[in-house]
Amino acid sequence: MVSSPTMAERSSAGPAANSELTCAECGAIPIPGEIERAVEARIADLKARGGDCSRYATVLESSYRSGQITLRPYMWRTGSHLTSGEGKPNGDMMLAREIDSLNVGVRTVDDVVWTMEHEAAHIAFDLASGNEANEQKTDQTVRACKS
Ligand SMILES: [Zn+2]
């Protein structure tokens, strides 16, 4: 997905203050145990598969273990699009847990892990996001490592 400087600046946001000016929906949230377990399982599975799967698993694992994955409560707006994930070449990732505060539609644990793998594949194979061909290739890679 597309990178946005304002997102990076927020990654160090602390606990929400009791101020109306605080955007409670923008801050990072702790990664729930169910997602941690799912990611751990996927990393092990991807490595066992080898090839492309283990190549992007290495990126995913490195981002995950070094605390570069930030989870936000909801999807955020990038220009005219809603974004569920964003990765940077250095391994930083920002992911959305839910779609929005009204819970119109639900992002399952699998959806979140999919986004994580998608961003890891972008980084691992140097596929710039935002162009349709690269997005398809990225999704194809992740799909091939799931079946
Ligand atoms: Zn993408």
Give me the Rg, rounded.
15 Å
- Mean pLDDT over all positions: 85
Q: Element order, helices and strands?
A: HHHEEEEEHH
Helix proportion range = 40-55%
Query: Could you say which structural class the secondary elements and strand pairing correspond to?
Result: alpha+beta
Number of structural units classed as domains: 1
Low-confidence stretches: 2-22
Proportion of residues in extended strands: 5-15%
Shape, principal axes of CA atoms: globular
Bound molecules: zinc ion
**Biggest sheet: strand arrangement:** 1-5-4
Major sheet: size, sense and barrel closure? 3 strands, mixed
The N- and C-terminal alpha carbons lie at a distance of 24 Å
Strand segment count: 5
Number of helices: 5
Write the topology of this structure:
Layout: H1 5-10, H2 33-49, H3 51-65, E1 69-74, E2 76-78, E3 81-83, E4 85-87, E5 93-98, H4 109-124, H5 132-144
Parallel strand pairs: 1-5
Antiparallel strand pairs: 2-3, 4-5
Helix pairs in contact: 2-3, 2-4, 3-4, 4-5
Provide keyphrases for this structure:
single chain, 147 residues, alpha+beta, three-stranded mixed sheet, two-stranded antiparallel sheet, 5 helices, 5 strands, 14% strand, binds zinc ion
